[in-house]
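From: lab user (bench 3)
To: helpdesk
Subject: output format question, protein + zinc ion

Hello, I'm new to running complex predictions and I'm not sure whether the block I got back is the full result or only part of it. Here's what I submitted:
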Amino acid sequence: MQQHSEPREEKPCPPKNEHFEPRRFPRPRSSWKPCPVPGCGELVQPGRLLCLGHWKGLPHPIRAKVNRLWREYRHAEKGIAQLMAARAYQSAAREAIADASARPVEGGGR
Ligand SMILES: [Zn+2]
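Helpdesk reply: Thanks, we reran it on our side. This is the complete output you should expect:
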């Protein structure tokens, strides 16, 4: 039996090109939207409903509901099912925003 030494896969370093400047693309600010809670100036991450402070202040059932309905909307088939899911999500979102507006922001405030 032949004994093979463990094959070593050495990845060659990528050649450094001095003319190559890695451009940093910052996340476009346009996809960040302001928090829908009145008086809150925070920006909301893309794909999120509220700013982090307001979101964390929400009771668990509401957060779970929003998340679930959002997922249902994303996975709904195009057409009437998606429309219904969008409506359900929007009403849950409105409920969440109303709830967040009614309570003080965690670790913030005026
Ligand atoms: Zn907020």
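A quick orientation on your result: The longest strand covers residues 33-34. Let us know if anything else is unclear.
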